[in-house]
Amino acid sequence: MTLPLCPPAVFICDPFGHARQGLYAVLGAFLPEPIPTVALTVLAIALVLTTVAVVVMSQVWAERRIIAFMQGRLGPNRVGPAGLLQSLADVVKLLMKEIIIPTQADRIPFQLAPLMVLVPSLLIWVVLPWGPGLMVTDLNIGVLFILATGAIPTIGILAAGWASGNKYSLLGGMRVAAQLISYEIPMAIIVLVPVLLAGTMSLQGIIDAQSDIWFVLALPVGPIALFLFLVAGIAEVNRSPFDLAEAESEIIGGFHTEYSGMAFALFFLAEYANAFAVSAIASTLFLGGWLGPILPPFVWFFLKAYLVFFVLIWIRGTLPRLRYDQFMASAWKVALPIALVTVGLTAVQITLHAIPGGAGIQ
Amino acid sequence: MVASFGPVALAAVIATVFGLLPLAISALLAPRRPNVVKNSPYECGVETIGPTNVQFKSHFYLYALIFVIFDVEALFLFPWAVTYTQLGLYALIEVGIFIGLLLVGYAYAWRKGALEWV
After folding, report:
1. Phi-psi region of B48 (alpha: psi -120 to 50; beta: other; left: phi over 0)
2. Which partner from A68, B53, B77, B97 sits 20 to 30 angstroms from A197, CA to CA?
3. Which residues of B touch A174 (CB under 8 A)?
């Protein structure tokens, strides 16, 4: 039944780990202790951020192509083979565009807001494990860190909406704030399910606890929790069908109506970095993260994350946008009770030792 | 502490640089030719009427209040979830009472229409 794992001793199975060991040996040979560790951490963070940029460009391309095929169009196919370089061309174009600061805008918050949204979105990536021990830092409160960091962009978006001095932006900003805090509750409660099953908040620990059975298969709570996590996650990253914050047909572009050029691109980058982070967290908490046979762990990590992201694209291509009152009501009247009941059920199941595969029993 | 949270602080600094870098490149490459019409608020070509920062729905604040209550609840549940397997039945009953108390307030808010978006 169980297929062999990729042995970490082989270079291709763990290239980052081997590179880290090699570099540490070289640097440690002639530098005193804190310097090699700090230097390697800086390198790791730089690698992660570069990966974010590349992943976001691939995501934008994939999303445009897949949505286009779903709607019977071709999508971007001119720049590079199959339009692969389209995102790169867009980045260059945005770099050359003027950043307009409206007269009525509050200049300092207006210019700070994109950074306030982008930095927390990038910070989440620091704790995502790509393989056994392969993360910038393994926080023992990993899940809580993700929830806390994921809440900070709300302030940036609110600042952007308020500082723009535009009624559409203000409405968009307020909508995001209300939407994010509403779906934060079911999100925070539903991640208790994997935490309960694993008995730890460390993402590494949660993956280790799934070596026997992925938490999505811990019936009946696993699938419910994953579904609810994805719904809350899509709401948290403002993606269709929950993109009421930037509903073009109602409030132009919401909080980023007045942004142009690179300032707008930073919001865009943050949004896609968040969308991929949600996919990666969903696969880490419920689908076993980097666990998988034969292929190297980091390949499994990206494979599963892209798979979940494909589901997000699919949902976007299929479902129409919700009405705002229904959307807010479903957070408090549907998602919250389901989340509470699911967590209660998980606790009862653990007490009764009734989790399939023996998960949750230490 | 420093070993596990130091990298986070480092990452925050590097991420800020990562965000400032494209803005700096853009400042070098992009044109800057503002004029009165270009810098006016974008509202579908219609002139803005009245001040922008008007009063808005009190419902936003109601949601914020309920959010605080339930966010604190979720925060209290995390340590419980981590140690649950060691605590057993006692912890289950205790958390049942804790959530039960909050559910009374939740039911009250629901009944009073605080969850309704009118």
Report:
1. beta
2. B97
3. 56, 60
